[in-house]
Automatic annotation (TrEMBL):
Single GO term (MF): NADP binding
The protein, known as: Shikimate dehydrogenase (NADP(+))
UniProt-annotated binding residues for shikimate: 18-20, 65, 90, 105, 221, 249
Highest taxon of source: Archaea
Source species taxonomy: Archaea, Methanobacteriati, Methanobacteriota, Methanomada group, Methanococci
Length: 277
């Protein structure tokens, strides 16, 4: 690092579990870019200061994670079309003192899913959660699949489902956590259930409700094998951990900030090295 180093980072609460700094800094080094990525723990009551602070420091941009993906919007100057559609932001670019919000979560999740099982179209998909990540994934996958939003608070599930229906003109279902999984093709956990440090937390779905012919994806990547994925493996279901989404959404953010395509394998290996230790 020197006086010319460009600063990007992550804001969230908490952030100590995040491996985004490891991944991005490895990618910057690989491309010989003079950037550094840091994680900042920002409590909700301090969020209103972040954008002005980032501008004042000359930051190039930052990622946004739980619980700020929706709330950050009110402090931004502009939104990409995708971020407007989804109503959540996970990436911010600052250029000419203008903070622009983007969302790379949806495309990141689709790329991770399709890397494992091929093109995803005309499937029945249940997404657990109704927060920022769930919004992005639901909007993306509802474009060409039947999606059901399942959330602990039914009203939040209903609200998100109706919003997607109105914006995409596609039918979207909603339910509480006891959603019927009988004819579902893909189950996606977009909640923090099972995330470090709560690695032994009761899974959002038990093995009794899962089937061998299902695909079960968990957006949590720390740990790679969550309690949900352990349950899915017990019945022989195809499992997909959160590493792919982390990498692909990160790669899209990397391009937004730098204009350069990162090396996906460098990003993947940097994370696996940490998780194996």
């Amino acid at each position: 690092m020197d006086a010319k180093t460009k600063l990007v980072g992550l804001i969230g609460h908490p952030v100590e579990h995040s491996l985004s700094p490891v991944m991005h800094n490895a990618a910057f080094k690989d491309k010989n870019l003079n950037y550094v990525y840091l994680a900042f723990d920002v409590k909700p009551e301090r969020l209103r200061f972040v954008v002005d602070g980032a501008k004042a420091l000359g930051m190039v941009g930052f990622n946004v994670t739980i619980p700020h993906k929706v709330e950050i919007i009110k402090y931004l100057d502009q939104l990409s079309e995708e971020a407007k559609l989804i109503g959540a932001v996970n990436t911010v670019k600052i250029e000419d003192d203008i903070a622009i919000g983007y969302n790379t979560d949806g495309i990141g999740a689709r790329r991770a899913l399709e890397e494992e099982i091929g093109k995803v179209k005309d499937k029945k998909i249940v997404i657990f959660g109704a927060g920022g990540a769930a919004r992005a994934v639901a909007f993306e996958l509802a474009k060409d699949n039947f999606v059901v939003i399942a959330n602990r608070t039914l009203e939040k599930a209903k609200k998100l489902a109706k919003e997607i229906e109105e914006k995409l003109n596609r039918e979207v279902g909603y339910s509480d956590l006891n959603v019927d999984l009988e004819d579902v093709d893909i189950v996606i956990n977009a909640t923090p259930v099972g995330m470090y440090p709560n690695v032994n937390e009761k899974p959002i779905v038990s093995k009794e409700r899962l089937r061998k012919d299902m695909v079960v994806m968990d957006l949590v990547y720390n740990p790679l094998e969550t309690t949900l994925l352990k349950e899915a493996k017990k019945v022989g279901a195809k499992t997909i951990d959160g590493l792919g989404m982390l990498i692909y959404q990160g790669a899209e953010a990397f391009k937004i900030w730098t204009g350069v395509e990162p090396n996906i394998e460098v990003m993947r290996e940097s994370i696996l090295k940490v998780l194996k230790n």
